[in-house]
Design brief:
6 helices; mainly beta; 14-stranded mixed beta sheet
């Protein structure tokens, strides 16, 4: 039987529903939903299975239509509805398997950034505000002087780009759990007032096939920032806040341990991966300089080449080198920082702690990525505060209602 989320059911499980093209869809099929949110992916995606009795919704849900995903949990803020994602329908898949339903596949607004090429041969230079305007807005109208709206959802009624810059996890964490009254988020407005911006962008030109998202990610990395889309569609540039107090706790102990009763990981779901693939002892970032004091000659054919380096000979029991190039003009400090970033990112990607937990919240707070989690796993000797990279929210016949968590070691992910 389908689950009618327009009324509260007798159980206290979380519930989701969709608003597509302005119309609410709350009749979710019992086969449920799956929605993933990951700080390292520019696009969050998911599927909600809507019951479609007698073809009630057939042909009404169109690909490309605007979509909002809402969730409520009786344990969070009295069960108030919370906007979890703003995006578009990517595939309204109709299926008769297990009963008539529409498997609404969707993505957040990051879909536009990853699937739209940058305007051809546009000079991208100046500061971050110029870069965002050139990439996310259309050309200026010759009469009004205003930029056209690409209808991606990033431009508000006043013609400004919906963007925020954050040095921590305040934006996402607050938006999902406490709201953000009075929080000024428009970096463009602050910049227009002489406030903070991300500084100068080296001149580049967009070429055929360049994706908007990749340009944003590449230049955010140089400022040691990550890029993501918030639940309300704001484009956010941020750094992980590893010093933030953990909002959640994971407990896992042996059957003979006195605290076994506190275990909150679903049996059989825990795994810890620690592959060697991204680990190095010596990393070099290579670039070139246009300084006229350095010219290639027959005697010195590499005079214009520069290198930043980071070494940690104790990271592996043997020597392993990685070298990579960066086309930007950088001083020695920047080159060294890029080498450090490469080393740390490899370590971040290598170690992963994954597990499933019941429900979608803990202690009255939704599980959300870009937060800290206290792990007390005495079986595998994993104890301390760890970074929550990704959360997948699932409800299905076989799995019930749960979250799949992806956790990483802290103090490694800078960008």
């Amino acid at each position: 039987m389908p689950i009618d989320f327009s009324a509260r059911s007798a159980d206290n499980t979380p519930r989701v529903w969709l608003v597509i093209g302005g119309q609410e869809y709350k009749l979710v099929d019992e086969s449920g939903y799956s929605y993933s949110s990951d700080v390292l992916t520019l696009t969050d995606t998911g599927t909600v299975n809507l019951a479609n009795p007698d073809g009630q919704y057939s042909g009404k849900i169109k690909k490309g239509a605007s979509l909002q995903l809402y969730m409520s949990d009786p344990a969070v803020n009295g069960g108030a509805s919370v906007l979890r994602l703003t995006g578009i329908v990517t595939n309204p898949r109709m299926s008769a398997s297990g009963g008539e339903k529409i498997q609404v596949q969707f993505s957040d607004l990051g879909w536009h950034l990853e699937n739209c090429d940058a305007p051809l041969y546009i000079g991208l230079y100046g500061n971050w505000n110029d870069l965002l305007r050139n990439l996310l807005q259309g050309p200026k109208d010759k009469t009004t002087g205003k930029r056209s709206d690409r209808k991606w959802g990033f431009q508000n009624a006043a013609g400004n780009i919906a963007v925020s810059f954050s040095s921590g996890s305040k934006d996402l964490y607050t938006a999902l759990n406490q709201g953000r009254q009075g929080f000024e988020r428009s970096a463009l407005r602050r910049a227009d007032k002489g406030g903070d911006s991300l500084g100068f962008i080296p001149p580049i030109q967009s070429e055929a096939g360049m994706k908007i998202g990749q340009i944003l990610v590449d230049y955010a990395r140089r400022a040691k920032l990550l890029v993501n889309i918030e639940s309300d569609g704001f484009l956010v540039f941020f750094q992980p806040n590893y010093s933030k107090a953990p909002g959640y706790t994971i407990e896992y102990h042996a059957s003979t341990y006195s605290r076994r009763s506190t275990n909150n990981i679903i049996d059989g779901s825990l795994s810890i991966d620690d592959p060697i693939d991204g680990e190095y002892t010596d990393v070099s970032c290579c670039s070139t300089t246009t300084n006229i004091q350095f010219q290639n000659t027959t005697e010195h054919p590499n005079a214009t080449k520069t290198r930043g380096r980071y070494r940690d000979i104790d990271n592996l029991p043997f020597y392993r080198q990685a070298t990579f190039s960066d086309g930007d003009q950088m001083d020695q400090t920047a080159l060294n920082n890029r080498a450090i970033w490469y080393f740390q990112r490899g370590k971040f990607d290598s170690w992963t702690y994954t597990c499933d937990v019941h429900g979608h919240s803990q202690g009255g707070i939704f599980w959300v990525p870009n937060t800290m989690v206290s792990i007390n796993d005495t079986v595998h000797n994993v104890v301390g505060n760890y970074y929550l990279q990704a959360v997948t929210y699932v409800r299905s016949r076989s799995l019930g209602t749960r979250c799949k968590l992806t956790l990483k070691k802290p103090n490694l992910l800078g960008a």
